[in-house]
Amino acid sequence: MPGGKPAGVACVQLDATFGCRLFGHPDRPAVCCGLQPSPDMCGTSRHAALHWLARLEQDTLP
């Protein structure tokens, strides 16, 4: 996303099933490539994963 992705806003590269349209593409941002899913991150549901990501976004605000 030009200028970065604001916290709490879904990435414009997510498709209808929340898959990344840039996955495996050389233009995929480094921050996305460095994000490694884990049981701690994903939890047991989509809701848990989104909560973890929201907290990460807040914790890394400039």
Walk me through the structure.
The chain starts with 29 loop residues before the first helix and ends with a helix. It is 35% helix and 0% strand. It has one domain (10-62). It has three helices and no strands. It is an all-alpha fold and 62 residues long. The chain is globular.
Q: What structural category do the secondary elements indicate?
A: mainly alpha
N-C termini distance: 17 Å
Q: Order of SSEs, N→C?
A: HHH
What is the helical fraction, as a range of percent? 25-40%
What's the number of extended β-strand segments? 0
Which characteristics define this entry?
single chain, 62 residues, 3 helices
The gist of it:
With 62 residues, this protein is mainly α.
Task: Give a topology summary.
Blueprint: H1 30-33, H2 39-42, H3 46-59
